[in-house]
Hints:
The chain has two domains: 7-143 and 264-308, Rossmann fold, CATH 3.40.50.450; 147-260, Rossmann fold (3-Layer(aba) Sandwich). Helix 1 runs parallel beside helix 9 (266-285) and helix 5 (144-165) crosses helix 6 (180-188). It contains eleven helices and eleven strands. Strand 7, helix 7 and strand 8 form a beta-alpha-beta unit. The protein has a seven-stranded mixed β-sheet with strand order 3-2-1-4-5-10-11, sandwiched between helices. The chain has a four-stranded parallel β-sheet with strand order 7-8-6-9, with helices on both faces. The protein is elongated, with a radius of gyration of 22 Å. The protein is of the alpha/beta class. The structure holds 6-O-phosphono-beta-D-fructofuranose (F6P). 6-O-phosphono-beta-D-fructofuranose (F6P) is lined by residues 15, 130-132, 174-176, 227.
Amino acid sequence: MEKKVSKIGVLTSGGDAPGMNAAIRAVVRTGIYYGLEVYGIVRGYAGMIENDIFQMESRSVANIIQRGGTILKTARCKDFLEPEGRKRAYENLKKLGIEGLVIIGGDGSFKGAQIFSNEFDIPCVGLPCTIDKDIAGTDFTIGFDTAVNTAVQAIDKIRDTADAHDRLFIIEVMGRDSGYIALHSGIATGAENIMIPELKTDIYEIINTLQEKEKRKKLVNLLVVAEGSELGGANEVAKVLKSKMTHADIKVCILGHIQRGGAPSCMDRVLASRMGYAAVESLLTGTNINTMIGLVNNQLNYTPLDQAVKAERTIDFEWLKVVKILAS
Ligand code: F6P
């Protein structure tokens, strides 16, 4: 096989997600298996600009498949949005002879990769890695399964105490622009209702339903709210509910960044390993370069970076109907 590259770089960028380390491991080990030199770029695009780049060995990625976070660190880099920053990054790669990049991150990271690969002769392959699952061209992103299971475990615990006190809990999960964690964790924990950024919520309908349930002596209720819901986060929603349901015992719990950490689930480790391996094969053979590797119907799927950053992932609103019916 004619190798199209002999030195590649790997970086993690944007918000971290469980499974980033498993993806780095897959890239490094596959690259070394094929006789490539693999370079780790520290703190994403920032490390590319600052030349914080080091050669990785098989042992560099030992004992990390089970760890959350990212051994390469991650950052959101404003300088990479500027042509000057990208030029410096390119010069640093050139000095080291790096001929291809694997970008592990979310859509912001892919936008950077898309511009960079258009401007310079460095092919890029993106691996979708975000707890938000808000990327088109893939059924799952690395990190989502772990994050949503963390949320489910936490909400189950809240249900215990909510039940003991007959309380209404408003639980805020992550998702500034995306309702997937709320949708999945809400269904899995039997939430009363779910509020997500993608859909306008009729809070008065929710209040009516809660009051009607109160009459039927259903006093334990969980509302799962994405942090970026149209009404705001859990505190904002609680304010409205408290003003209309003055006698109800209402509590708020914000799960926050615990959803980003922890050991990746089996599913995320497998996804990261398959995608990391496929990314190196793409760079090596020159096929499917400048794409994002996704998983569709359990098959690897390649979406050109320019399409991956433009397309929006759409929520199936019927899921919300399921929530309401099952919570009756
Ligand atoms: O990783 C995605 C995400 O969790 C969003 O849902 C959230 O709004 C954002 O990251 C917050 O990230 P940070 O705290 O790193 O700015």
